[in-house]
């Protein structure tokens, strides 16, 4: 299953609302996760089951979607949110990641 | 608390076999729902899922690398080992291991190791 993330990069300011999309090549129900990765660090799980916030993740992060189209939204971008974001499908093996979205400071 | 740590050689030569070990604590790979995956990331590139072993010793691999990968577990040592044969410079990157707890209902990766950088060069 292929995952297509868009955009591949974006520039935004602190306080902006940011939306990242992930499209699957076939129906994956709600078996999608989102990760945040900062430079030189391991990825961190943000959201699983398409919309369930992982424990400890700020509520400004939210996920939505099912089937083939999914969205990660950051409601008010904070300085610590500048990072790369990846979606991952968990519907069937082999598990696959999207190509990533880099969120940069405008 | 759950921790994972990758170990292995920092440098391998082309055609050699890479062996990486993930040593974990805070959970048991014999408990129902527990899995460990390997993921890698070439410099400046996206994450690539490689393989998974679960509590029942079932294993799955990335399609494009299936012939080169072997994942195994040692439950007495709390370790998962990944071997990758016929290494090539394009295999250079950071290799991570990560845990799945199926109690959340899916294979999402909730704990990650810090990663180990592997370079392939003669």
Write up this protein.
The complex is a heterodimer of chains A (106) and B (122). Chain A is an all-beta fold and 106 residues long. Chain A contains no helices and 11 strands. In chain A, the strands form 2 sheets. In chain A, strands 2, 4, 5, 6, 9, 10 and 11 form a 7-stranded mixed sheet that branches. A 4-stranded antiparallel sheet of chain A has the order 1-3-8-7, with no helix packed on it. By secondary structure, chain B is mainly beta. In chain B, 0% of the residues lie in helices and 52% in strands. Chain B is built from no helices and 11 strands. In chain B, strand 4 and strand 5 form a beta hairpin. Chain B is globular and about 45 Å long. The model of chain B has no long low-confidence stretch (mean pLDDT 97). Classes of the chains: A mainly beta (106), B mainly beta (122). Chains A and B meet through strand 4, strand 5 and strand 10 of A and strand 5 and strand 10 of B.
Quick recap:
Chain A is mainly β and 106 residues long. Chain A has no helices and eleven strands.
The CA-CA distance between the termini of chain B, in Å, is 40 Å
Main beta sheet of chain A: 7 strands, mixed
Strand content of chain B: over 45%
Radius of gyration of chain A: 13 Å
In one word, what is the shape of chain B? globular
Number of helices of chain A: 0
Unreliable residue runs of chain B: none
Low-confidence stretches of chain A: none
Largest sheet of chain B: 7 strands, mixed
Mean pLDDT of chain B: 97
Oligomer status: heterodimer
Distance between the termini of chain A: 33 Å
